[in-house]
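User: tokens in, sequence out, please.
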């Protein structure tokens, strides 16, 4: 299976909230730099950024 097919498969399987930010970052890479490793790194970095921006839920003791 080619890198392009694997990346397409990965793009279809990720959370919707990650699809929009990842696509322009992948397009900015040269064709030779568009690897599964690059995709996974971008996806991981984007997920970490999104998790940092989610306010922590405060739990109250009963």
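Assistant: Sequence out:
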């Amino acid at each position: 299976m080619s890198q392009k097919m694997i990346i397409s498969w990965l793009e279809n399987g990720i959370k919707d909230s990650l699809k929009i930010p990842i696509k322009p970052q992948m397009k900015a890479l040269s064709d030779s730099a568009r690897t599964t490793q690059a995709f996974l790194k971008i996806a991981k970095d984007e997920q970490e950024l999104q998790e940092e921006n989610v306010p922590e839920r405060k739990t109250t003791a009963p």
